[in-house]
Design brief:
With 468 residues, this protein is of the alpha/beta class. The chain has a domain of 246 residues: 3-Layer(aba) Sandwich (Aspartate Aminotransferase, domain 2), CATH 3.40.640.10. The chain contains 13 helices and 13 strands. Strand 6, helix 9 and strand 7 form a beta-alpha-beta unit. The longest helix is centred in the last third of the chain and has 35 residues.
């Protein structure tokens, strides 16, 4: 591809992207294709000779696009959002064109120093104290793994990486059943094992960790010869928005000298609004925090911030410095590859810089406040309709509900059938969860381009899809 062809196709791709965003409301949120349908239309063999871009682009529109779930759709109410604000997308064009590998300061000084600045901007925006620094990870899964690895090394007097876990005391990490499964995976990858992830009971409408049970579990494990290593709390659990009392949890962790990590992957974004910060009161006591600007703030995936109090502990856990990665003749810099498991790093800070400068905190606060208000309005409509039952009240913009199951109907099949009708209809997209063992339907408002009319459409669809 020569310079002019690159220019022409880049312009076409950008125009296509803008047109795509403009017509999203006319598309079904989720495709109606069946498993294997897309694969059957893709050649099973790699081409020996190059093909014209016209043919490739046409196949993209004909084969790929009909099989895509539209995560930027304003009526995407499933999972949590993976927003990509237009300003963020423009920044990603530039990052993709430069294609820099930003593993070290010297491999792109501007990328490293902008990352430091953006972490500082977001720390201040969330109201966190200046003692926190951090880095941009790909996802909360990586940030949580980093935290678990530091817990492991500190508990083993920094001998785990050197000696392995064989023959070491069995470590214990404490959390609840409300946290994301990335915690389970981090425990696996760190070699601690799921048998040593202790699930503490929850209590109250917020499904928060029972701190008295936490203290008892830690004391019992010490008496049994285990070695407690850390506690993982959450603000805004994926299922229903569970949120732990961080002040109380941190007090127990401090008594026992345990590392405290807080997962606020989704809800952390809402903390740019001062009125929501009571939900994570005490967060300043944490040793690390993870939140994802690629969820509710609008930074294109992937973009997760891990705030940490002691970067030296993280570097001591993860840094490897072969000769070819050393920088000579310079001082006062950070190599962020020493703050994460992967060596390679994308230039993720640029999209944050574009996003925050273009919208400003007030623009982003308005969006989040609207989402919360619209979700609360829908919740009140559902609550007032005898055909529905609310299962969990709103936490920010997330709540759960289900249709009232008629006598003689099997509850699981009835609720799942109702959800399937909603999603097959295509106008909105919802996902399910389990609350106290029973199937429920989640609703969360968070799409960057959502408007109040989209919440109204959700209410219309919910009523229309009920069995007559």
């Amino acid at each position: 591809m020569n310079h002019q062809e690159f220019l022409d196709w880049s312009e076409k791709a950008a125009r296509w992207g803008a047109d795509y965003r403009e017509r999203l409301r006319s598309l079904p949120v989720r495709p109606s294709c069946q498993p294997g349908e897309i694969a059957a239309r893709i050649s099973p063999t790699v081409p020996e000779k190059g093909e014209p871009m016209e043919s490739i682009f046409a196949d993209f529109e004909d084969i790929i696009l009909p099989g895509m779930t539209h995560w930027q759709h304003p009526r995407f109410f499933a999972y949590f959002p993976a927003n990509a604000a237009p300003a963020s997308i423009v920044a990603e064009y530039l990052v993709t064109a430069m294609a820099a590998q930003c593993m070290l300061w010297q491999t792109s000084p501007a990328a490293t120093e902008l990352e430091t600045a953006m972490v500082g901007w977001l720390r201040d925006a969330l109201g966190l104290p200046a003692g926190f620094t951090g880095s941009i990870q790909d996802s909360a899964s990586s940030g949580t793994l980093n935290a678990v690895l530091v817990m492991r090394e500190k508990a083993l007097a920094w001998q785990g990486n050197q000696q392995g876990l064989s023959g070491q005391p069995r470590l214990r990490i404490y959390t609840t059943g409300q946290v994301h499964t990335s915690i389970d995976r981090a425990i696996w990858v760190a070699g601690i094992g799921s048998d040593n992830l202790v699930r503490i009971p929850v209590m109250g409408p917020g499904r928060s960790m029972d701190v008295e049970a936490l203290d008892r579990a830690i004391r019992a494990d010490i008496a049994a010869g285990y070695r407690p290593a850390g506690v993982i709390a959450c603000t805004g659990g994926t299922s229903t928005g569970a949120h732990d009392d961080l002040e109380a949890v941190s007090a127990v962790a401090k008594v026992h000298g345990l590392y405290l990590h807080v997962d606020a992957a989704w809800a952390g974004s809402a903390m740019i609004c001062p009125e929501y910060r009571s939900f994570w009161a005490g967060v300043e006591q944490a040793d690390s925090i993870v939140f994802n600007p690629h969820k509710w703030l609008g930074a294109q995936f992937d973009c997760s911030i891990q705030f940490i109090k002691s970067p030296d502990d993280l570097v001591k856990t993860l840094a490897i410095q072969p000769e070819y990665l050393k920088t000579s003749g310079k001082n006062g810099f950070i190599n962020y590859s020493e703050w994460s498991v992967p060596l390679g790093r994308r230039f993720r800070a640029l999209k944050l810089w574009f996003l925050l400068r273009h919208h400003g905190l007030e623009g982003l606060r308005t969006m989040i406040r609207n989402h919360v208000r619209w979700a609360e309005t829908l919740h009140r409509r559902i609550e007032a309709d005898a055909r529905f039952e609310v299962i969990t009240a709103p936490f920010l913009s997330l709540f759960s509900f289900r249709p009232v199951v008629p006598a003689g109907k099997e509850a699981e099949l009835f609720v799942q059938s109702y959800l399937d009708r909603i999603n097959n209809d295509g106008r909105i997209y919802l996902t399910q969860t389990r609350v106290d063992g029973a199937l429920a339907i989640r609703f969360q408002a968070g799409a960057f381009d959502m408007q109040e009319e989209d919440a109204d459409m959700a209410w219309q669809v919910l009523q229309e899809m009920l069995e007559p």
